[in-house]
Design brief:
Elements lengths: L1 H23 L7 H20 L5 H4 L6 H5 L7 H13 L8 H15 L5 H13 L9 H16 L11 H4 L1 H11 L3 H14 L3 H11 L2 H14 L10 H4 L27 E3 L2 H7 L7 E3 L1 H8 L6 E3 L25 E3 L2 H4 L7 E3 L1 H7 L10 E3 L9 H16 L14 H10 L4 H9 L1 H11 L8 H18 L11 H6 L1 H12 L1
Helix pairs in contact: 1-2, 1-5, 2-6, 2-15, 6-8, 7-8, 7-10, 8-11, 10-12, 10-13, 12-13, 12-19, 19-22, 19-23, 23-25
Amino acid sequence: MGTRFAAFALKLTSLHDYYLRLLHGNQPIPSGLDMANTVKFCSQMLLSLLKEVREAPLEMVKSEKCDAERMALYPNLDYKQLYNALTQLIDVIPAIHIGLQAFGQALLQCLACLLPFLDHDMIDNIPYLTASTISVLPVEHHQDIVNNLCFYILPFTITRKTEDGSENAASQSIAAVIMMIFQYSSNPAHHCQLLECLMALKPGVVKDLLCVIAYGTAPARASAAKLLFYYWPSFNPNLFDRRAVLMKFANDLTPFVCQRDSCPNAGNAEAGKVCYDHRISITFANETPPPLYLCIECANEIHRTHPNMFYDILHPMQQVSMVCENKNCRATDKSAISVCFSTECASYNGNHPIRYCEQCHNIRHNKRRGGDHVYHTALPHISKMDSQTQTYMIQAIVSLLKEAEPLRFPGSGSGGGGSGGGAGSGSQFDSASLEERQLLGRYGVWLLVGLCTPDQEISIEILGRLLSMLFHWFHVTAYSFDGTKKSLMHLIFSVGNLTLRIFIHLIT
């Protein structure tokens, strides 16, 4: 055992040496293949140590009060130093020119293997650390990064219970995780996969999504706004035609396949069961961090020797229905007002998230049942939101309406108002992308019209800011880029009544 520990310490020294040589450009520059082999050794060491533990460390990770007991289960190795070494290597990934793909795969695997060995402060940081690798790793790793987050990192971090009952730091960092993935991945399926995972774990994830819309980068804001209207039940079904403005995002979602080493359908069989027992996981998947995700065939085979160890996996939404998906629904109004991600409710819908009308929602979620279910309802009126969500909502509306402004570049004429700016930027950007950017303003208009109608509980300052931004949007959309369709004009008429109501409310 002492030899193994000495080898582990030597590998940590090697990782630090790799970092310094890449940072300063010292010769010989280490290749990604050499670094990958070193990181793989650390992963295998962690898995071998984890397999010797009799307790359930994955369950203990979910509670901060079990941290001391959990850390006492392992040999006294410098796990923090390994975490710091991996963090440093992420910073110098752009300097790796050979074997980057192999190193990226080993890095992601090691981060997931390291999770059960970390203290609470590093556990809180690991979701964002994993997400940040998407900014430096090649596109081929984007799916692996999202899978790592959704299947190995987020289920054990953002749901962690703190000792004082407050929201943990990992959960508070979700807005940054969303922004990072939405910014650097251009694949909408990755955005859908991440958001559905978060919706299954965190009831208030809509606040994080509004934060991204309010303060995120332009690509992240655009994707977040579309997904907000795509997934959340409509707050006003008569405000817009949902089918006319929303496309199906997740049609090219890559299924997560069985992780068993000897799966007869390796690479093709979609995972349908999960086993949280770390010893079973490492036994049947030697190089994969726990938990173990299995296809139905492999799960049935292992079930014969290890019964009652498997749980259903929540599958992605096949479609976003606007009506109740309960097959026994007897309501008169079948409009969907909630979507539930709990395994109990999903079992009635083929293990997919299920949408309920108001009557079915109240039957499934009340004081007697469904108290622990994670479900999402339509956004309430802005006056019913808490102060932080209200701030995010206001800034989100403002940011979306500002997207209608034409892009300006050095050398373009500043005169001529909006039309001059549009002409200056139209020569450098495709007209379709310019119109799409303008059309983002409609999401802000719909949020404004649907959720910000004036009443006695909304302050005059909020209404004044929204009204001024709306007038600015009127001014910008009065002009049109050359060659673009004037498809925004009908929105001006849809908000005219609201503008009048806000104005009357302000002067009275």
